[in-house]
């Protein structure tokens, strides 16, 4: 017995899924047209009463379905829908002024890409044919698993990656989906485009030992003097753990003609702040936090937090893993930060980990440090350069390998 039914959905792929589920892989597309709600298709198939599956049968089939075979069936059906309709169906198609029998032609490339993506994941042993062990989680499709693999290799924060995967649109080409992922990331990266000579108040540089606080404090001071007056800026160092850090700032302070104070304790810090009260900008270099100086550091930071015009900027090492960066922001209270300075950009393979962390905690990127040269290797962030350093390599090496 030949049966004919109408199916509708947001896009052609969704409608094809419904046709496959209800009429089976042998269904023929009689006609298709666009509507205000999306796509409407008329399909027909030969069906016998004895072969109509029960809900229990359909559930069992859904549990054992092979995604490669299902995608292949969609591909074959989509190809069939783009062929010239049989004479018996021309009248039905012509009766609809907005009929478009070739509406699926543009999606064949996307189906091919998905099949290639599945093949690639199968070869790498990454495609989970049996579903996820966590029953509450929604299983990832082939394209999402491909992107997940890329994000993991990039070291992107897992929470950011999860939000990105939720935006994967299977109705577009793989290349377009990848571009959409990058655009979402781009729109969520916050930049603070403010040159150092336009800043006022107290700028406190905090972060882990070895992240580049002292060197970048010197860069900021030098860039300020290049654009403004040396008499308008001062430097305070409370890093008593490293004599070299203090001597470096003393040297550059003398070269630049910038007033410098070293604070050994909280009393010294208060005196230095009073002495520099008329400065437009005060840079404060701090030590990294470790068990031996934790109590002293908290006292210093408490005094600085009491200053009405103090803002805290955290150094984030681009060569560090996500877990270390997260621990840094936990130590220095991410919610209190006015921005961050990303250091050692010249030595990292990808900026994805540090960019993911700044997005997750909504911290503006204030400056980018890509070398040790003072004052040249410190720049205001450029979104295009950041995205290129984060994704250019993987875009060509990973995504294009599965595109048609």
How is the topology of this model organized?
Layout: E1 2-9, H1 12-23, E2 28-35, E3 38-46, H2 55-64, H3 67-81, H4 87-94, H5 108-123, H6 142-154, H7 158-165, H8 174-188, E4 201-206, H9 213-227, E5 233-237, H10 243-256, E6 259-262, H11 266-275, E7 281-285, H12 294-305, E8 310-317, H13 322-331, E9 337-343, H14 352-360, E10 365-369, E11 378-379, H15 383-399
Parallel strand pairs: 4-7, 4-8, 5-6, 5-7, 8-9, 9-10
Antiparallel strand pairs: 1-3, 2-3, 10-11
Short recap of the structure:
46% of the residues lie in helices and 17% in strands.
Helical fraction: 40-55%
SSE pattern = EHEEHHHHHHHEHEHEHEHEHEHEEH
Q: Give the end-to-end Cα distance, rounded to a whole number of Å.
A: 40 Å
Strand percentage lies at 15-25%
Using the CA coordinates, give the radius of gyration.
30 Å
**What's the number of helices?**
15
Overall spatial form = elongated
Indicate the mean pLDDT. Answer: 75
Q: Structural class, from helix and strand content?
A: alpha/beta
Query: Biggest sheet, open or closed, and with what strands and sense?
Result: 8 strands, mixed
Annotation, overall tally of beta strands: 11
- Spatial order of the strands forming the largest sheet: 6-5-7-4-8-9-10-11
Poorly predicted runs are 50-68, 82-99, 118-137
